[in-house]
TrEMBL record:
The chain crosses the membrane at residues 43-64, 85-103, 161-178. It comes from Polynucleobacter victoriensis. The lineage of its organism: Bacteria, Pseudomonadati, Pseudomonadota, Betaproteobacteria, Burkholderiales. GO terms for molecular function: nicotinamide riboside transmembrane transporter activity. It is found in: Cell membrane. This is Nicotinamide riboside transporter PnuC. Required for nicotinamide riboside transport across the inner membrane. Belongs to the nicotinamide ribonucleoside (NR) uptake permease (TC 4.B.1) family. It comes from the Bacteria. Pfam families: NMN_transporter. It is a multi-pass membrane protein.
């Protein structure tokens, strides 16, 4: 199952880097597969996160499908997050961390509740930022992906650790592609 989840996730992020709407159905499929993998590995925060990812993917799919109000196209309009939005995201991350940590420590047999809660909260935020089409989502994804590599090696999920290494490279590609699209849009 990890191999299937690996392939679906890689395809999903690659399509997202190029701003393709097919990102979101693939996100649903990869999240479903990884939900199983993570539950089996007792990464309960990550397993539950996959179900939230499915909901956020549906939200993003609908958001991206709506026509751009400025140009009446189906191309996504990427933008930078405001300082105010980034500050709110930081507060949301902290609050989510404490809630998730409490749940993992008190209601699961997780052996890594702190890092699982931290990364789960960060991943939720990065997905929300991607759905909002904020360029900075790529930076947050790269940050959490670096830490996820260590967690997955610790949990003997080596293929998934490799995936997250590749995802960091795709974060750079995504940043570059979205930046290019923003420049083109600004020049039209």
């Amino acid at each position: 199952m990890e191999i299937i989840a690996f392939i679906l996730s890689l395809a999903c992020v690659l399509l997202n880097a190029y701003g393709k709407i097919l990102t979101w159905p693939l996100a649903i499929a990869s999240s479903t597969a990884y939900g199983y993998v993570f539950f089996d590995s007792r990464l309960f925060g990550d397993a539950a996160l996959q179900f939230v990812f499915i909901g956020l993917a549906i939200y993003a799919w609908i958001t991206w499908h709506k026509k751009d109000t400025n140009h009446q196209t189906n191309q996504p309009s990427f933008s930078r997050a405001s300082i105010n939005s980034i500050a709110k995201c930081g507060i949301a991350w902290l609050l989510m961390f404490f809630v998730i940590q409490y749940i993992l420590k008190n209601h699961t047999s997780s052996d890594v509740p702190n890092i699982d809660a931290f990364l789960t909260a960060g991943s939720l935020l990065a997905t929300y930022m991607s759905a909002q089409k904020w360029l900075e989502n790529w930076l947050l994804w790269a940050f959490v992906d670096v830490i996820y590599i260590g967690l997955y090696v610790y949990k003997d999920l080596y293929l998934t650790a490799l995936l997250y290494g590749l995802l960091i490279a795709l974060c750079l590609l995504g940043w570059r592609q979205w930046s290019k699209q923003m420049k083109v849009k600004a020049n039209t």
